[in-house]
């Protein structure tokens, strides 16, 4: 069963000229590969919001999540901060990818290099109802790691 496809409008910015648009690398890929629109050197421990050269208009009721590429993470320690990052349906600025270098060596981000994945997702809205007490569960108030005892 496949999910319905949505249409996302994309505006290429001047510094994105000649770059490929976000695209699926394989028939069953969940994320669209996105490339850098600038060259930047990430020193160990550094982070930078890397330009992509485009802006998008996401349909209401959806978001686009920004996720790291596993190859960059494993081989070089390059990841996305605030992962998954969320691009909201009402944002119209340039899409930027916050990359961080967790590795021991400087990493050169090259214009046109795949740096992240974009994953469109439906948004479930919620409201909060303030109550005096919450229902009881077996876990109760156990925190991080409490289910592994």
Summarize the structure.
It contains one helix and eleven strands. The protein has one helix at residues 70-76; strands spanning 9-12, 23-24, 32-35, 40-42, 47-57, 62-67, 78-80, 85-87, 94-101, 107-109, 114-122.
Task: Describe the 3D structure.
With 149 residues, the protein is mainly beta. It has a domain at 35-123: Distorted Sandwich (Deoxyuridine 5'-Triphosphate Nucleotidohydrolase, Chain A). It contains 1 helix and 11 strands, in the order ββββββαβββββ. The protein has one helix at residues 70-76, and strands at residues 9-12, 23-24, 32-35, 40-42, 47-57, 62-67, 78-80, 85-87, 94-101, 107-109, 114-122. Strands 2-3-11-6-8 form a 5-stranded antiparallel sheet, with no helix packed on it. A hairpin with a 7-residue loop joins strand 2 (23-24) and strand 3. The longest helix has 7 residues, at 70-76. It is globular. The model has no long low-confidence stretch (mean pLDDT 95).
